[in-house]
Amino acid sequence: MEVNLISDTVTRPTAGMLAHMMETPVGDDVFKEDPSINALEEQVASLFGKEAALFFPSGTMANQTAIKLHTQPGEQLICDHYAHIFNYEGGGVSFNSGVSCALIEGERGRITAEQIKQRINPSDFYHSPKTALVALENTTNKGGGACYDPEEIKRIAALCKEENLPLHLDGARLWNAMTATKTSPAFYGEMFDTISVCFSKGLGAPVGSALLGTKEQIDRALRIRKMLGGGMRQAGYLAAAASYGITHHWPRMEEDHQKAKALGEAVKAVDGVRYLAPVDTNIVIFEFTSEAREKQFMEHMQKCKIQLISMGSGKLRFVTHLDYSNDQHAYVLQCIKQFN
Ligand SMILES: *Cc1c(COP(=O)(O)O)cnc(C)c1O
User: Which residue's CA is minimally distant from atom 6 of ligand 1?
Assistant: First the structure.
């Protein structure tokens, strides 16, 4: 048996998803004439209670567009030092928007209203970059799938309102956060000015993300997406996959979280594991006491044909997903137990 647990982006479209893609009507989305894309954008906007949504080829492009929407060159955004927009978008923040990041050392990628407050540069102090945006991530990627407490989000949103700062959510795995914390899309729609969500992770679509905001923001986002080269033609096939993922795969997401919890339990019992991050969603991060022990474990996993990822500085990671079957799960648990 072969098992790939390096990321939840490794999934392939299910038979049902493929069938739905095959029968979906398409048109030229650059002319806004793709009925399936239009339908998806309406579906997602209405789900989150936002005026409008725009389909993107990647989460990176959706985030980069949001940053461009909210900022001017020379300004600064506030985010956690683990943030995807800072670490994993190729330096796009500075390249695309000419913006710098004020980094906060949060807890597993999560920051608080109190911490944000301390990083806002006084608006009359013209020597410092103007603080123009606050960006949160939920769940946190580098933070191991941690979810924000909805109460903290409320405090942050209130602070941003008071300070007249837009608030963006990198919600690549917001589907997982909503599942784990039993929060509704409408809650996030109310709290954040713009939200990006990925369809190509837990929902199992092959490609795609969306950016949500007001009609005015999304009209401007359309022009920015064009400049970034993100206009696509008969991409309705992808939108159909995304829509199918929301309807049919989101409701089963708790299963991924349960499997991740079980993997965490199994890993915790392994001799030589010194740290297991809390398993809030579908990501399991752990560390061994020594490099030698970690190497032995990786070799054992390789022999079992189980793929996981090393995140550097001694951190190993499993990510559960739609294509990780019950049989595979039983097999992986057994292989972990056998390691000693
Ligand atoms: C995956 C991810 C993205 C977007 O990634 P793409 O590969 O560009 O779709 C953005 N933010 C976070 C937190 C992610 O995990």
Answer: 59
